[in-house]
């Protein structure tokens, strides 16, 4: 039989997943999926008075901890790793009622976390809406000739959370004139000039920007005029 080290103090009962086929030394049932060593001889769980316990695989630390806390009797399940020459934990055996109670508590926690995620998402959505509104108002103040739907689109694009765009920068969140102007300029560059087509045709970015710079600045001058037609 594969060796087993003496469990550390406080570990409690240890149950083995054997690598080889073993029979119970007392009732002769086998092969055993799980066994307990008593005085060097294998015992099945029923003969070791552990047959009423259920197996909980490792992987969920919270469920494992709560199951052990609620179970009057429990055991650690180990299996020998030949490559590492040591026994490794596979899970625990606990009372079925304790596992059910632990699952209920973990489910309640999961539901609470989901409710909190929903609340946080709603809060962020409201914050983003307020920020987009403020960004749009600043666009309209600096560029009163900018059409309302265009100002809204620029604000929504620039202020998208996690986008890395100018609206989410520190200057953008502070609604600095430079950041707002940069967002409007970027919109004009991509929407009102052949800039994107130039990039797709292989024109270097700096050269493409040079070619369309006059058109972009003319559009910004138009939008700075509150009497621009269509505003």
UniProtKB/TrEMBL annotation:
Domain DUF2293: 138-224
Domain of life: Bacteria
Pfam families: DUF2293
Entry-linked PANTHER family: DUF2293 DOMAIN-CONTAINING PROTEIN (PTHR38113:SF2), PTHR38113
Protein name as catalogued: DUF2293 domain-containing protein
